[in-house]
Amino acid sequence: MASPSSFSKAILTLACLLLLVGGTSAQLSIYYYYETCPLLCPTVKSIVQAEIAKEARMGASLLRLFFHDCFVNGCDGSNLLDDTPTFTGEKNAAPNVNSLRGFDVVDKIKSAVEGVCPGVVSCADLLAIIARDAVEILGGPGWDVKLGRRDARTASQAAANNSIPPPTSNLNALISSFQNHGLSQKDLVALYGAHTVGQARCTNFRARIYNENNIDSSFAVTTKSNCPSVTGVGDNNLAGLDFQSATSFDNTYFVNLMKKRGLLHSDQQLFNGGSTDSLIRAYAQSQGTFFQDFVAAMINMGDIKPLTGSNGEIRRNCRRIN
Ligand code: HEM
Ligand SMILES: *[C@@H]1O[C@H](CO)[C@@H](O)[C@H](O)[C@H]1NC(C)=O
Question: Per its UniProt entry, which superkingdom is the organism in (predicted)?
């Protein structure tokens, strides 16, 4: 007969395992669709590749979709749901409206994946795979994506308004926003390196280029030429977030921050005499270090509050609940 001590050890071991299995992200696995959808990754990648070949910016737009999903009640595909007369989703929330793009590409990928393994792969997981592929195709690192997230049957415009920091944020606000999502300062700076690709609208950087002092003057002159000072004029004119290198995933974003060429107020906050300066220097100096930390941070972000088990559903169409 087992002694009491080994008996309670067994109970403890069981309890630990149960805790692990019940934990928020413990059920995600890089092998999740290994048997149920073996063609998943090549199916996704070929479409991401073709869309980026058509328009390089699309890679950036797709990467951003994953961020704007994960920061709003977790990585659950909630930002893909369309508004209807009886349902308010996240697409018209302040950080998303007239800004998030790539939904048609996600639809195209979802229907191709439904063609090879119907009813199996969530939209939330597709966003994670698509983000990884986009980064890799634009010249960045690759990694194994943890999978097994299910799709939300709800969305929250209020949470979308409140959970994604605005570009007017100062460093403390950025740090605490990421902390609220369980992400460190290192995660913040590494993830922010996503701004090595993509574009922003004049309305989001006008105040910075006309009113701020911690800005390179020739960069300001160039950027002003396509962003008039008057509110309402040219609001949607675009500029690259990474000056002169907005279609390749590299570490020049950090080099530009050190030269005071951050486009958004919040970008330059990362290198403005505060606690994140040393990370900016490290990433500007070593693309390898940036890539390594970016991968780790993307995995951390992808672990935010996934729906697993019998929570949520596998949406058939990413735009609406089943
Ligand atoms: C927390 C701080 C962040 C702020 C304040 C911020 C803000 C912004 C803003 C204002 C834009 C331009 C939107 C527009 O003008 O329409 C933008 C674009 C973008 N953001 Fe962020 N962002 C942040 C973090 C991130 C993270 C963590 C990622 C991804 C991991 C990301 C990826 C992108 C990409 C790729 C674009 C370009 C999208 C495109 O060209 O379509 N951002 N961001
Ligand atoms: C979210 O922001 C949008 C755009 O600023 C606004 O129209 C909407 O009322 C806000 N929604 C909530 C629920 O706060």
Answer: Eukaryota
Residues belonging to the chain? 322
Q: Is the CB of 132 under 6 A from ligand 1?
A: no
**Of 241, 242, 299, best ligand 1 pocket probe by most atoms within 8 Å of the beta carbon:** 241
Q: What is the pLDDT of residues 67-94, one digit of tens each?
A: 999 999 999 999 999 999 999 999 999 9
104 is in an annotated binding site: no
The closest residue, in CA terms, to atom 13 on ligand 2 is 158
- Annotated catalytic residue within 44, 45, 51, 68: 68
Most distant CA pair in the chain, distance: 83
Q: Which residues of the chain have pLDDT under 50?
A: 1-25
CATH of 182-300, one of 1.10.420.10, 3.40.50.300, 3.50.50.60, 3.30.460.80: 1.10.420.10
Is residue 317 packed enough to be buried (19+ CB in 10 Å), middle (13-18) or exposed (0-12)? Answer: middle
Q: Which residues pair with 176 in a beta bridge?
A: none
CA separation for the pair 154, 313 (Å, rounded): 11
| For the CA of 179, the nearest ligand | 1
Architecture of the domain whose range is 25-165? Orthogonal Bundle (1.10)
Which ligand has an atom closest to residue 155 CA? 2
How far apart, in whole angstroms, are the C-alpha atoms of residue 68 and residue 157? 12
Which ranges in the chain are annotated with CATH 1.10.420.10? Answer: 182-300
Ramachandran angles phi, psi of 209, nearest 5°: -75, -25
pLDDT per residue over 138-154, tens digit each? 999 999 999 999 999 99
Instruction: Tell me how crowded residue 185 is: count the other CB atoms within 10 A of its CB.
Output: 17
